[in-house]
Write a structure and sequence with these properties.
Shape: globular
Distance between the termini: 35 Å
GO molecular function, one term: peptidase activity
Number of helices: 4
CATH topology: Muramoyl-pentapeptide Carboxypeptidase, domain 2
Structural class: alpha+beta
Oligomer: single chain
Radius of gyration: 13 Å
Largest sheet: 4 strands, antiparallel
Strand content: 5-15%
Number of strands: 4
């Protein structure tokens, strides 16, 4: 049984209860880490200017409290192993469907393929 690290739990605790439930469920079967939940103004603007986000401050679901977006990566982390990101993403989408949580996967965004990103499928 896999579990999330203390740091991952802290980041996950900034997220909407549906995302918390989903990622905790996935983490029982897959080794993963939460790298971002809520993102403040500085972090969002940095992500935007570094080309890691298409959204400026206030336009991302990471900017809501609680966050309606979470970034999750497979462990051990290898940013070049897209196959492992795909496997984890498919598991997250499968569990979301089983738990009746409507989410979008950043892999499916137009322009920027954001493999770690999952967000509630709601309007901001």
């Amino acid at each position: 049984m896999n579990t999330l690290s203390k740091k991952s739990i802290q980041k996950l605790n900034t997220c909407h209860s549906d995302l918390k439930r989903l990622i905790k469920t996935v983490a029982l079967e897959e080794k993963c880490a939460v790298i971002c939940g809520f993102r403040g103004r500085y972090e969002q603007e940095k992500a935007y200017y570094d080309g890691k986000s298409k959204a400026k401050w206030g336009m991302s679901k990471h900017n809501l409290k609680p966050s309606q977006a979470v970034d999750v990566v497979p462990l051990p982390l290898d940013w070049n192993n897209i196959e492992r990101f795909e496997k984890l993403g498919r598991k997250i989408m499968q569990k979301a469907d089983e738990l009746n949580i409507n989410i979008k996967w950043g892999r499916d965004f137009k322009g920027l393929k954001d493999y770690p990103h999952f967000e509630l499928n709601t309007d901001i």
